[in-house]
# Entry
Amino acid sequence: MSNHLRQVWFNEPIKDSPAVKLIHLAYEKVERIILSFTIDLSRSGNSYLDPSRPIKINGTIVQIPELQRDSYSLTFVERKEIDVTNLLKYSPTGEDNTIEVYFKSNQKLWSKKQTGKLSLVFTIYFPKEEAPKKQESVSIKFMFCIFCRREIPDFSKFCCHCGAKQEGGGREIKTCTVDQESLPQNARYCRKCGSAQPT
# Structure
């Protein structure tokens, strides 16, 4: 199974809640999409990930397993392997998706100081491509033209080489005694090696 990493935030400074990004996903088929993120709000003081709605994808809250509720534990949060396949939209022509990360901060609105840093990535897994089915080999039977003695497809009404009408003959064959070449039953010499053939 192949995969593709789609970085949304890469250790980027964040200031106001929510941090919002719009991503466009254009894929034919997706097996699953996994979310991993790290948010560090420890340097700002009294800022922490909002436990009631930490991350939203297209308006739906992402359920984060074992997320602590106290503000101290939520100043630095790192999680991996969160399945969000059903929350994201994609199509061959592309679909827009809104990603929001909510945090609580006591920082003044006019402050230019960053609240923290955020990294968030989607790992998109694609279904294993099926190997193209091998075409079954069709065995074509041949007969020999009763006039020019060349091979033509079995049950031909006319020879594709000399154009002569076939009257049902030429289907019986024999094998060259020297190189095993298939020959018309009435051939006197092998067309490949030239050796004389028993009649």
Q: What stands out?
A: The chain has no helices and 14 strands. The chain has two domains: 3-125, 139-199. The first strand starts at residue 3 and ends at 14.
